[in-house]
TrEMBL record:
Stored InterPro entries: PsdUridine_synth_cat_dom_sf (IPR020103), PsdUridine_synth_TruD (IPR001656), PsdUridine_synth_TruD_insert (IPR011760), TruD_catalytic (IPR042214)
A GO biological process held by the record: pseudouridine synthesis
Keyword annotations from UniProtKB, A to Z: Isomerase
UniProt name for this protein: TRUD domain-containing protein
Domain spans labelled TRUD: 196-256
PROSITE patterns hit by this protein: TRUD
GO molecular function: pseudouridine synthase activity; RNA binding
Length: 256
């Protein structure tokens, strides 16, 4: 059994090395990200998200209005005496669920008391609306969050938010270390403005490691359920995995 576990670990290490040797472009092609809206225009290089402030995300209300720390209450909330409170949350170096857990601890309510319209990036400065159940505007105003969180205006509301219920997001992105020359950059940006871009699902939607979500999903669609289970439970080829999870993966591989 120990030899089998060792073999599984070596195979996992080998797969991880093979995956690291492949470029991100190769991995993108695996999941169908292989075309451009401007294939005839030369691109230019640069670095994204050097700092969180380089990637700013502001949620849009269903009306199209951009959410900011000084956003005004919604017209439908005027005069509301509901038991919920709506407020604006700005966060940095935290994902949305982590931010809500922090707020829940400060306000004395469980994380399930919060509702949001979307989950925002970790390495970014993001601004969105949050609704909390059984919390007052006064409690939000008196809250003293850590520096990675900022709270805007708060007001009573009778409603709660649902995922996908916003009008989208507005992104402000800084590209650093740009390479390619002014003429090439100008041409690429004009083409982007004129033609837009193909809004692919990013690689984070497909998972990582030996088993990735799109392969599991394809196996399910083809009704190859044994194959789907094998892909889902195979030891991961890379990424952050707890020792307990890795041990469980390898125990499953040995017992197949």
């Amino acid at each position: 059994a120990l030899r089998s576990v060792g073999t599984a670990a070596r195979n996992r290490s080998k797969n991880s090395s093979m995956r690291k040797d492949r470029s991100s472009r190769d991995v993108e092609r695996d999941v169908g990200i292989f075309d451009y809206a401007t294939p005839d225009v030369a691109g230019f290089g640069g670095a994204l998200k050097v700092t969180p402030a380089d990637f700013q995300v502001n949620e849009l209300r269903a009306s199209g209005e951009e959410v900011s720390l000084d956003s005004s209450p919604l017209p439908e909330d005027a005069g509301s005496e509901g038991s919920n409170v709506r407020f604006v949350l700005q966060k940095e170096r935290l994902d949305t669920l982590g931010a809500l857990a922090e707020l829940g601890s400060l306000l004395g309510v469980p994380t399930r008391s919060f509702s949001v319209a979307g989950l925002k990036d970790y390495r970014a400065v993001t601004t969105q609306e949050v609704v909390a159940r059984d919390v007052t505007p006064e409690a939000v105003a008196a809250c003293a969050p850590p520096p990675c969180l900022r709270l805007g205006r708060a007001w009573p509301t009778a409603t709660k938010l649902r995922l996908g219920g916003c009008g989208g997001n507005r992104f402000r992105i800084v590209v650093r270390g740009v390479a390619g020359g002014g003429r090439r950059i100008d041409k690429a940006l004009r083409a982007l403005k004129r033609r837009g871009f193909i809004n692919y699902f990013g690689l984070q939607r497909f998972g990582s490691g030996a088993s990735v979500n799109h392969e599991v999903g394809l196996a399910c669609l083809l009704r190859r359920y044994d194959d789907a289970v094998c892909k889902a439970l195979s030891p991961p080829a890379g990424g952050r995995t707890s020792s307990a999870e890795l041990e469980a993966h390898e125990a499953w591989a040995v017992g197949r």
